[in-house]
Amino acid sequence: MSTLSPEILSTLEEQAIELPSWAFGNSGTRFRVFGTPGTPRDVYEKVSDAAQVNRFTALAPSVALHIPWDKVDDYAALRRHADEEGVTLGTVNSNTFQDEDYKFGALTHEDDRIRQKAIDHHFECIDIMDATGSRDLKIWLAEGSNYPGQNDMRARQDRLHDSLQQIYDRLGEAQRLVLEYKFFEPSFYHTDVPDWGTSYAQVATLGDKAMVCLDTGHHAPGTNIEFIVMQLLRLGKLGSFDFNSRFYADDDLIVGAADPFQLFRILVEVIRGGGLNNPDVAFMLDQCHNIEAKIPGQIRSVLNVQEMTARALLLDRDALAAAQSANDVLGAQKVYMDAFYTDVRPALAQWRESRGLDADPMAAYAASGYQERVEADRVGGAQAGWGA
Ligand code: PSV
Ligand code: MN
Fold first, then answer.
1. How far is CA 64 from the centre of its chain?
2. Which domains does the chain have, with CATH numbers?
3. pLDDT digit string, tens, across residues 262-287
4. Ligand 1, from 29, 97, 181, 242: best to mutate by most atoms within 8 Å of Cβ?
5. Rounded to the nearest whole angstrom, what is the distance from the C-alpha of residue 180 to the centroid of ligand 1?
6. How does pLDDT run across 39-84, given as a tens digit for each residue?
7. Which positions ≥6 away from 78 have C-beta within 8 Å?
């Protein structure tokens, strides 16, 4: 008998996880970016690679773009290409961290010319969203300062609000802005949007179409991320996840690799707060594959999210509620851990086959010949990468 009920399976069937276009390009550290045969040279090839992940998992129907990395002349043509590959174009990520002008800030910059340039970049992103049919504009800001006293932090918050308001006012009816926070890096003393509270405070003043983006790698070690998930869902402001995992800093490793139990705890709160398969709460990956193969790295990632969602759905909420209201500490913990320790992989493999998918998407991709084909075809040109 399957460990997963028909109700759980039909919930899982709805799951959708957006892939980042940059995961298919080369990436690395400041020490070295290693090239890989077959790496896409442009966004068309990135979209084709992303489509492979969806083909073998039915979990990843959309691809997030990064501007200007994925800029093209004809977005209608890119949209058609995505459509032919069976995916859609998703979140548009802005970029205010690679231009000389942004050395001391962008949306918070005290020079009006530079701040306007950063605002205009977001207007351009919204124009692109109109052409691609994307709903979400994701804003992650690198700005902050490196030394105490370097900047007036308060004035920067005020300018940030003003900039975000101008961007927000440009959004279409069905479009949203999600503001991502990160506690440090590249700024080392203060960051203008360092935590969920700051992101929440900024988006709350903008309006209903502005939400918080929670990147799981953007917290200090030991942070109780599931508490933040609970609170943002409670406040109706959790707009999206950037899933990945970390050992030390913003490692952007495969989600569920460093701490599978943390992923379970997060998904338990997502389900508790009504955030699963809820269009208001977008699931995305934000990862880089510095040394492992990229397409299988993304396949592994979406499967990890699916497997942990299945375990979280197995949680016996009635038994947990009974133990909680009896203050049965050990009983509650047993119910919680029983779900976490249930191996759902055989049941998911069986279910995949019943839906016409391969039981083992990793093996099926490896046997498909796609990798060999792109390695042979993608000769010449400049390989795409994070930051280019
Ligand atoms: C930089 O830390 C970062 O990883 C953010 O998490 C963004 O979501 C991503 O880059 C894309 O800009
Ligand atoms: Mn992110």
1. 9
2. 14-312+369-377 (3.20.20.150)
3. 999 999 999 999 999 999 999 999 99
4. 242
5. 8
6. 999 999 999 999 999 999 999 999 999 999 999 999 999 999 999 9
7. 43, 44, 47, 72, 89, 132
